[in-house]
Amino acid sequence: MIEFSVFIYGLLSMFVLLSAEHNRRLARPNPTMVTAVGWGLFSMSSTLAVLFAAMAIALAMGVQLPDLPAGIG
Fold first, then answer.
1. For 2, 7, 23, 61, which has the most beta carbons within 10 A of its beta carbon?
2. Residues 48/52/58/62 CA torsion (nearest 10 deg)
3. Residue ranges, the chain, pLDDT below 50
4. Is residue 14 within a helix (H) or strand (E), and if so which, with residue range?
5. For the whole model, what pTM was predicted?
């Protein structure tokens, strides 16, 4: 399931980036849907980065986190 999610994330990211670049070259504004998907991907990426950073800091400080595979925590 995670592989599928990463694949969809990559496709959406590439679509948004290519569309934005194409529209920039043609001096056109981006469609509302491209902007909304871009902001959604940005929000998701930022949130996951903060959560993973907090998890890494907690693990570095020796906190035992529940539901982690055996070798991680």
1. 23
2. 150
3. none
4. helix 2-25
5. 0.75
